[in-house]
Amino acid sequence: MPYISSWDTTDFLKWSKAMLDEYGKIVKISNLPGRKDMIMVFDPAVIAEVFKNEGPYPVRFKFEAVHYFREKIRPDFYDGFEGIFNEAGESWLKARLILNQPMMTVAVVNIYVPKVDQVSKDFVKLVKALRNEKMEMPDNFKNEIFKWTLESISLIAYDTRLGCLKQNLDKDSDAQIMIDSIDNIFELTYDLDLKIPFWKVFPTKTLKSLIDSSENMLRISQKYVERASAKFDLDAPGTSDMSVLQRILRLDPDTKRAVIMGMDILFGGVDTTSNTAVSVLYCLACNPDKQEKLYQELKSIVPADPSENLTSEHLAKSKYLRACIKEAMRMLPAPNGTIRTLPQDAILGNYFIPKDRADVWVFNSTLYMLDEHFPDADKYIPERWLREGESCPVRKASEAHPYTFLPFGRGLRQCPGMRFAYMEIETLVVRMLLEYKLEWNHPPVKFLSRMLRTAVSPLNFTVLDRNK
Ligand code: HEM
Hints:
Elements: H1 12-23, E1 26-29, E2 37-41, H2 44-52, H3 64-73, H4 75-78, H5 89-103, H6 106-111, H7 113-130, H8 141-158, H9 174-194, H10 205-231, H11 244-251, H12 255-286, H13 288-301, H14 312-317, H15 319-331, E3 338-340, E4 346-348, E5 351-353, E6 358-362, H16 418-435, E7 436-439, E8 447-449, E9 453-455, E10 462-465
Parallel strand pairs: 2-6
Antiparallel strand pairs: 1-2, 3-6, 4-5, 7-10, 8-9
Helix pairs in contact: 3-10, 5-11, 7-8, 7-16, 8-12, 9-10, 10-12, 12-15, 12-16
The chain binds protoporphyrin IX containing FE.
Main location: endoplasmic reticulum
Keywords: Heme, Iron, Metal-binding, Monooxygenase, Oxidoreductase
Organism: Cloeon dipterum
């Protein structure tokens, strides 16, 4: 395996593709200051081996700066519980099982369809107000999408609407502080956790900023979880319409832990879903024929009267909708992949990997644009995700190796928010497309892949009224 001393991570995806092209499907990088060896794998069969060897308590990579805040700055609140992302071993599994029950159950997700639909309808109204005289969205449209996601996910984490979609939010409002804090934490975590960790030697400005944002997020989360939980009678018999937070508190009545889980739901759900929603809207705007096909499908499924709520049945019927989302996640995925530290010795490819000694980076997104896995990979072809029997100009995605396309990770530690993420994005796309025709009339958007891939040039979508 090659030895590489340089560490240019300006764009993670380009960097990993360069590694694959230069060194092949498995690459080891040693002698990283303050870090374990890094092994990058780009072969679906080897990726399958990684997950087979992940053990009963998969270890992903601790967000060390978050750990620092939780253990050293606020041990009074966290009290030894580091949350879903950072916990390991049995303590992770215990917390994860509490989260899985409400978040991964279809019936619970379905309860949220009308509520999340209302958020998407409000977003569609906001879009109208944001349009300029050229019918274009403002440069910072990405932030508006971010607000839509935070508003939807606060329904799950806090059982409440934060009010993010109001125009001209007061800078001191909880919604605005939350928006700024999450954005900041995400950005800073990349610098603190994936670059040389000077902050471990002395308290850098970046670390101080992370601490401030984490304090803000904790204060606001605590307020909303406590407010919501005061409404619940946790001793009353359970009902099928209970919210996620209510269910979490019934399984573990400690509100502090519910606050921590709520923050992790936001941390895991907001940036990932926002960036994915951007990818989907952008792909549809750039591919008017696919957008039209989807619009026709939606028109035939969804009630014509916009005051009628969407239901899970409407979403389930719309097969092309899910295909359009998956294809956008393939071409413009938000996460690069995931990481595992193997708890047992393993053979990956032909190499011996001793236990606990390396972080194995499962960089699936690097595979998504390779013709060998997805023919005509640079073309937006949602049809490749449709079932057998449906016509498609290229080989179907179902024929790719099952460990090729893993946008939500895999195994016991895979994303618990997958069903919510699809549902949220589906309601957004339905509401946007029924109201507007999207166009892209500018040079291609520039994306930068760091902790997540995100658009770094303005998102000036042209948004035309459908009913005119
Ligand atoms: C399109 C949107 C999303 C994408 C692409 C995504 C992707 C991922 C990925 C790749 C992981 C790591 C999985 C692994 O290591 O195997 C993850 C973990 C996680 N995600 Fe998501 N996610 C999305 C939305 C959400 C939403 C909406 C929520 C919550 C409502 C959420 C909550 C979490 C949590 C809590 C974890 C950590 C799980 C653990 O460590 O046990 N995600 N997500």
